[in-house]
């Protein structure tokens, strides 16, 4: 299929990736790291994937001001408008409105794909086909399309989309009207969702025309629409800081998707994971006969099972493991963490304690 010059992609790359400590830090978060052990960062994988869907110059990356250099280092030769810096974190609704306002000045006829920067896609050809179908559909209809991923287990860390069983279009059996969005339900509710067969995971990937996006913001987030769609190439950094400091912190899901009546889900055919936790990385990684996922590093295992290992790939250190079962072993240049997989929620405590000790020691 020929690439349409009016197809644009907004990549949201401002996350902190705090669940992947110690390899992900505030100064070098998950999207800039080779989490999958494939030789490219999550941002690079995402960017190169969308290069096959829209013109390279139509990909806009929104990130925190402190990460602009990292973006430009990892994705060289980007034009000035392709990297937009946010002065403050205000969730996804302001982020997308900012990018859409800039794109509207270049291409008022744009169709927009909105995507996180740090999710994993396992069948790229199917992904491209699904995105192209969504782009073609919103060019003909005043719809918002969200891509839904087939759930593989009850999981409380995902958003769920309930959809009407009848196809939205006679010849598009994978397109359905959205009934409800439910963000991170309790485990029993998640089990009921999976059993019903009427729910998909919310991938956080949306497709809509610029006109439909703007109307949605004006209807459901009028304050953000009023301020952000007045932004342009001449906006000073001081004015941008003022706008961000005064705007509401809200996600697109909460601000628009849960309220709009023109949202349809494309039940996607590609494999997907948000790779949000160590355990989700274990789930999507290749495992050896003992159930170990050795993502990276020079590693030897003995009587070790069901363990995730992520080590630096520079071969400066060799890791030997014996007698572990169900652990996370992860190392950065200066920190090694060994934690039971079932206790990974303690990562936040570990990182806080380590950073606090560093502050005390440096006083």
Please, could you describe this protein's structure?
Helix content is about 30%, strand content about 25%. With about 375 residues, the chain is of the alpha/beta class. Helix 6 crosses helix 7 (about 220-230). It is globular. The termini are far apart. The mean pLDDT is about 95.
Which parts are unreliable, with pLDDT below 50 for 5 consecutive residues or more?
Answer: none
**Main β-sheet description:** 5 strands, mixed, barrel
Structural class: alpha/beta
Mean pLDDT over all positions: 94
Strand content: 25-35%
Strand order of the largest sheet: 6-9-7-8-10
Radius of gyration, in Å, reads 21 Å
End-to-end distance: 60 Å
- In total, how many beta strands? 17
Spell out the helices and strands N to C: EHEHEHEEHEEEHEHHHHEEHEEEEEEH
Number of helices: 11
Helix percent reads: 25-40%
Tell me, what's the shape?
globular
SSE diagram, text form:
Blueprint: E1 7-12, H1 42-50, E2 59-64, H2 68-74, E3 83-86, H3 92-106, E4 111-116, E5 120-121, H4 124-140, E6 144-149, E7 159-169, E8 172-183, H5 187-196, E9 199-209, H6 210-220, H7 222-228, H8 237-246, H9 252-257, E10 263-267, E11 272-273, H10 278-284, E12 293-296, E13 298-302, E14 308-310, E15 318-322, E16 327-331, E17 336-340, H11 347-361
Parallel strand pairs: 1-2, 1-4, 2-3, 6-10, 12-14, 13-15, 14-16
Antiparallel strand pairs: 4-9, 5-11, 6-9, 7-8, 7-9, 8-10, 16-17
Helix pairs in contact: 6-7
């Amino acid at each position: 299929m020929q690439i349409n010059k009016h197809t644009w992609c907004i990549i949201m790359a401002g996350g902190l990736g705090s669940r992947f400590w110690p390899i992900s830090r505030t100064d070098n978060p998950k999207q800039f790291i080779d989490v999958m052990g494939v030789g490219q960062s999550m941002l690079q994988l995402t960017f190169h994937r969308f290069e096959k869907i829209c013109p390279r110059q139509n990909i806009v990356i929104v990130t925190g001001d402190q990460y602009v250099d990292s973006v430009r280092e990892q994705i060289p030769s980007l034009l000035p408008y392709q990297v937009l810096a946010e002065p403050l974190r205000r969730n996804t609704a302001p982020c997308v409105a900012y990018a859409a306002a800039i794109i509207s000045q270049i291409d008022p006829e744009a169709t927009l794909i909105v995507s996180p920067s740090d999710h994993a896609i396992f069948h790229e050809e199917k992904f491209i086909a699904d995105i192209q179908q969504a782009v073609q559909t919103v060019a003909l209809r005043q719809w918002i399309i969200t891509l839904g991923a087939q759930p593989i287990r009850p999981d409380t860390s995902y958003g769920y989309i309930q959809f009407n069983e009848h196809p939205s279009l006679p010849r598009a059996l994978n397109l359905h009207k959205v009934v409800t969005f439910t963000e991170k339900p309790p485990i029993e509710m998640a089990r009921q969702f999976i059993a019903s067969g009427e729910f998909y995971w919310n991938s956080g990937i949306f497709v809509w025309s610029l006109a439909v996006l703007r109307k949605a913001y004006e209807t459901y987030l009028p304050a953000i629409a009023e301020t952000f769609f007045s932004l342009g190439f001449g906006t000073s950094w001081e004015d941008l800081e003022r706008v961000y400091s005064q705007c509401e912190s809200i996600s697109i899901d909460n601000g628009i998707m849960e309220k709009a009546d023109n949202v349809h889900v494309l039940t996607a055919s590609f494999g997907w994971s948000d790779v949000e936790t160590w355990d989700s990385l274990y789930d999507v990684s290749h495992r050896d006969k003992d159930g170990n996922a050795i993502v990276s590093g020079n590693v030897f295992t003995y009587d070790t099972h069901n363990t995730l290992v992520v080590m630096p790939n520079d071969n400066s250190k060799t890791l030997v493991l014996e007698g572990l079962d169900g652990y996370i072993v992860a190392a950065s240049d200066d920190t090694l963490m060994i934690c039971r997989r079932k206790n990974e929620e303690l990562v936040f405590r570990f990182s806080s304690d380590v950073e606090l000790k560093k502050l005390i020691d440096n006083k």
